């Protein structure tokens, strides 16, 4: 009878004791109590003096001198932990990037955040000076040509990797050989550039501090490219099994100024100064690198003293950071070349006068004022410093000149104001990604308006980067004109390669026999003066017969805490060995 | 009942298959990801060589067949960017997302129930109108905007809570990091449940058996909480179960704003980097949790409401 009544009233008996009413009551009580306790603790914690943590440590509290010996394990033993190992008395510097690194294996790293980690953990063979942008010694302290195809490198003695093994000539030989490989563990490497551009042949140990590297062809670019080659311990990196590759992707072992003590994916990487570092000891004892995708969050963290370096501050956020008590802006014209590619294989654009006209019609000053906070400068050449020819000027804004060039090329305004030739309207599509580069689609809109002033009909097509990259990169088949940015090498040769017909990202399909002939000569020329002369000639061709509308070198804005001394580099490299705590 | 459970299980498998297939095809329509595996100076010939090496030059049905064959065994391949098994990458981040979603649903219920009950019992009062206005704001404010505002006020201006991340200084620190993202994620659910509790309770309060309870001279508390609320809870329980699944989807934005290292932030990053295996893995994982919860709610519903069980039988 009891069961019947319970059934009618919706009372379900769950065993002898637990019925629906009790179940719901218990759930509600448990949840309520849990949350109240949690919130209580959280608020109490917030109200109470905060425990020493990086973000809230006041200037002057940092006492690196009193730091106890680090208790961290070698990187190879590092495991994801719940609590970051802290160096007592030291004030960690927090770097916030947009995304986390994917892999720290030197053969497969593929982005700036990954290079940032490796720049701390590994020694590089050479380094590009952030100010002069010239190659300076790092682990390779001297280099010379023995003959046209043989380089000799001198390295320091007594250097050690974080696992205690010697960072010696054998390690350098191994590192050069591994980084030159086109495949590691059966997978295509990303950094095979070194092997291809140097035409790497072999490396040999001469003595404990001397290594020689042979190339198949003369390759003046070797010292430049060594700035992207990490020194690796053979004992850790020689094993190409799948298990070992997975391990070294997240547990790097280098001989750099910092060792990795903890990496919680997509949350934080904790780096700690390596006592046995062969070079000058860094001023900052602990560096924490955090991925924070949202810019507003990064800016707030900087304003609140919870970050010391934040990347990719948008121009419109610059005044906010500059007004903040704790932050400032460090800006630099980077090496990333933003341009509008023009397809040489499309009939409208084969005539170089049309492409020149587009360059004259682009009003960069208006873009700079409205979108870039006045911080940009128009790209003068396809070359980055230090190879940029001296005394050259960018295309000036000259609408009349642009119109006259189009007229010479046979384009006359029709009754509707649109240019036409042989009964065909001058109509093109401009493709642009959205959010990939600073103000990319807005710049594309400005170019659209500038070209419309010439009488060209321009349809703007803005796409998400994942779709855009598919069309541009994979098929090499974008619209007639398209916005793109290419990375920041400073070797000269690599920038000039961007418009080479064989370059996989060159979707302009631009061809110029003389340019390609000079490029082949440049590749095997060793004399610096002659190389610069060749580069100048190639630049002159690319200026006169432009494959791009030259837009600008992307200006990079970094938010920097006032408690550290550090300046942004055009190379986009962030390395805290070059920073100093001042507050 | 057994037939019902089997039928629901089969339906769930079909849904998962559909979701996974859709995600796979949409992604591969955007172009193959060969460029992730070559350096920027690569020539076109080098790109073709790598494309062949990775198997992206094979017909779509071969690639899809291979993917499906492995996926049913829980193997979603290897991340193109990280070089690690996708299953491992996704499972490492799932606890963070589940923690955030669970905290959000908890906060939502703790606020929604009292607000809904008081609104229903004080119908058309100032409290009712203001709380329902608040609920409307909660439902219409986008997570992105709300998250930034909470960060700005409680993280920036008042400095009560840390900005971004999951915390690294033990349970208390982790809890402090959890509060703002959980509040942001709970806003919509909180508002919807408050309205649902209110309307459901109002409907129940109008039923005859409640009138009888009043006529018996029972106290308001007994009538509302013991008699009316019990029956008003059934639709709420159904919605809450499904809502937990929906919160996992909402976590994509919240995790990005708060740099919360969960599956949502991972999927955003993977889409941006064209790491297709990771995207498909994340979508499948989130869909699995959603479908499982849906199934669990359906089954639990039978226990809570004997009428449903009777119908099924």
State the main characteristics.
heterodimer, A: 583 residues, alpha+beta, Dipeptide-binding Protein, domain 1, Dipeptide-binding Protein, domain 3, 4-stranded antiparallel β-sheet, 31% helix, disordered N terminus, B: 313 residues, mainly alpha, globular
What does this structure look like?
The complex is a heterodimer of chains A (583) and B (313). By secondary structure, chain A is α+β, with helices and mostly antiparallel strands. Chain A has 3 domains: 13-62 and 261-274 and 284-331, no CATH class; 75-92 and 105-258 and 568-581, Alpha-Beta Complex (Dipeptide-binding Protein, domain 1), CATH 3.90.76; 333-556, Roll (Dipeptide-binding Protein, domain 3). In chain A, strand 17 (412-413) and strand 18 form a beta hairpin. In chain A, helix 11 (352-361) packs antiparallel against helix 13. The longest helix of chain A is centred in the N-terminal third of the chain and has 28 residues, at 20-47. Chain A is globular, with a radius of gyration of 29 Å. The N and C termini of chain A lie far apart (79 Å). Chain B has 313 residues and is an all-alpha fold. Helix content of chain B is 78%, strand content 0%. The N and C termini of chain B lie close together (6 Å). At the A-B interface, helix 2, strand 9, helix 5, helix 8 and helix 9 of A face helix 2, helix 4, helix 6, helix 7 and helix 9 of B.
Low-confidence residue ranges of chain A = 1-18, 34-89
Q: Can you identify the CATH class of the largest domain in chain A?
A: Alpha Beta
Biggest sheet of chain B: strands, sense, closure? none
User: Strand share of the residues of chain B?
Assistant: under 5%
The Rg value of chain B, from CA coordinates, equals 24 Å
Contiguous helical run count of chain B: 12
Condensed summary:
By secondary structure, chain A is α+β, with helices and mostly antiparallel strands. Chain A has three domains: 13-62 and 261-274 and 284-331, no CATH class; 75-92 and 105-258 and 568-581, Dipeptide-binding Protein, Domain 1 (Dipeptide-binding Protein, domain 1), CATH 3.90.76.10; 333-556, Dipeptide-binding Protein, Domain 3 (Dipeptide-binding Protein, domain 3).
């Amino acid at each position: 009878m009891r069961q019947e009544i319970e059934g009618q009233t919706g009372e379900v008996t769950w065993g002898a004791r637990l019925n629906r009413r009790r179940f719901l009551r218990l759930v509600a009580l448990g949840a309520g109590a849990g949350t109240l306790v949690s919130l209580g603790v959280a608020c109490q914690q917030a109200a109470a003096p905060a425990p020493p943590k990086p973000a809230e440590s006041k200037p002057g509290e940092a006492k690196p001198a009193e730091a106890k010996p680090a208790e961290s394990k070698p990187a190879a033993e590092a495991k994801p932990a719940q609590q970051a190992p802290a160096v007592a008395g030291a004030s960690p510097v927090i770097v916030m990037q947009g995304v986390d690194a994917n892999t720290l294996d030197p053969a497969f790293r593929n982005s700036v955040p990954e290079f940032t980690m490796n720049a701390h953990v590994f020694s590089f063979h050479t380094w590009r000076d952030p100010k002069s942008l010239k190659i300076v010694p790092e682990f390779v302290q001297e280099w010379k040509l023995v003959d046209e195809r043989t380089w000799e490198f001198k390295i320091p003695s007594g250097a050690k990797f974080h696992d205690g093994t010697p960072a010696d000539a054998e390690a350098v030989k191994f590192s050069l050989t591994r980084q030159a490989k086109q495949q590691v563990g059966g997978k295509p490497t990303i950094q095979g550039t070194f092997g291809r551009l140097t035409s790497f042949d072999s490396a040999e140990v001469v003595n404990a501090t001397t290594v020689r590297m042979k190339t198949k062809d003369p390759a003046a670019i070797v010292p430049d490219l060594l700035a992207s080659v990490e020194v690796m311990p053979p004992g850790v990196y020689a094993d190409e099994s799948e298990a070992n590759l997975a391990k070294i992707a997240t547990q790097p072992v280098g001989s750099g100024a910092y060792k990795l003590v903890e990496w919680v994916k997509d949350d934080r990487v904790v780096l700690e100064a390596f006592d046995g570092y062969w070079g000058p000891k860094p001023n900052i004892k602990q560096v924490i690198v955090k991925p924070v995708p949202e810019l507003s969050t990064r800016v707030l963290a900087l304003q609140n003293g919870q970050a010391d370096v934040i990347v990719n501050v948008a121009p419109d956020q610059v005044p906010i950071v500059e007004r903040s008590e704790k932050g400032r802006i460090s800006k630099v014209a980077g090496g990333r070349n933003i341009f509008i590619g023009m397809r040489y294989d499309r009939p409208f654009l084969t005539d170089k006068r049309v492409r020149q006209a587009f360059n004259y019609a682009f009003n960069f000053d208006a873009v700079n004022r409205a979108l870039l906070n006045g911080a940009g400068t128009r790209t003068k050449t396809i070359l980055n410093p230090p190879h940029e020819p001296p005394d050259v000027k960018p295309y000036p804004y000259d609408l009349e000149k642009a119109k006259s060039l189009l007229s010479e090329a046979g384009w006359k305004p029709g009754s509707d104001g649109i240019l036409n030739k042989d009964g065909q309207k001058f109509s093109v599509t401009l493709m642009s990604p959205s959010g990939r580069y600073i103000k990319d689609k807005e710049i594309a809109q400005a170019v659209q308006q500038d070209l419309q002033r010439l009488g060209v009909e321009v349809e703007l097509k803005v796409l998400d980067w994942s779709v855009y990259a598919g069309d541009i990169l994979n098929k090499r088949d974008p619209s007639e004109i398209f916005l793109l940015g290419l990375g920041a090498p400073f070797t000269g040769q690599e920038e000039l390669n961007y418009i080479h017909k064989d370059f996989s990202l060159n979707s302009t399909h631009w061809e110029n026999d003389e340019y390609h002939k000079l490029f082949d000569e440049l590749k095997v020329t060793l004399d610096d003066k002659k190389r610069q002369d060749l580069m100048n000639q190639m630049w002159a061709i690319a200026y006169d017969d432009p494959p791009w509308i030259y837009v600008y070198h992307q200006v990079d804005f970094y938010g920097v805490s006032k408690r550290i001394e550090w300046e942004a580099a055009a190379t986009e490299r962030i390395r805290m060995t070059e920073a100093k705590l001042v507050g | 009942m057994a037939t019902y459970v089997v039928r629901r299980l089969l339906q769930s498998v079909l849904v998962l298959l559909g979701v996974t297939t859709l995600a796979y095809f949409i992604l591969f329509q955007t172009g193959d990801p060969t460029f992730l595996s070559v350096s920027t100076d690569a020539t076109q010939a080098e790109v073709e060589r790598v494309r062949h090496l990775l198997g992206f030059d094979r017909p779509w049905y071969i690639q899809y067949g291979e993917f499906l064959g492995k996926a049913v065994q829980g193997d979603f391949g290897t991340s193109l960017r990280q070089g690690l098994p996708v299953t491992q990458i996704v499972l490492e981040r799932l606890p963070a997302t589940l923690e955030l979603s669970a905290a959000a649903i908890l906060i939502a219920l703790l606020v929604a129930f009292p607000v809904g009950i008081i609104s229903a019992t004080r119908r058309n009062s100032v409290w009712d109108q203001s709380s329902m206005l608040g609920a409307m704001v909660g439902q219409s404010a986008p997570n992105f905007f709300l998250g930034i505002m909470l960060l700005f006020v409680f993280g920036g201006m008042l400095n009560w809570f840390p900005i971004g991340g999951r915390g690294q200084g033990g349970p208390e620190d982790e809890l402090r990091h959890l509060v703002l993202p959980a509040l942001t994620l709970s806003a919509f659910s909180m508002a919807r449940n408050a309205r649902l509790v209110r309307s459901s309770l109002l409907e129940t309060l109008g039923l005859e058996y409640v009138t009888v309870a009043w006529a018996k001279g029972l106290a308001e508390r007994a009538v509302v909480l013991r008699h009316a609320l019990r029956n008003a809870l059934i639709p709420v329980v159904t919605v809450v179960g499904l809502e937990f699944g929906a919160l996992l989807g909402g976590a994509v934005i919240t995790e990005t704003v708060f740099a919360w290292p969960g599956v949502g932030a991972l999927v955003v990053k993977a889409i941006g980097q064209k790491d297709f295996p990771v995207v498909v893995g994340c979508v499948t994982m989130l869909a699995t949790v959603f479908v499982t919860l849906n199934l669990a709610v359906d089954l639990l519903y039978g226990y809570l409401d004997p009428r449903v069980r009777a119908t099924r039988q």
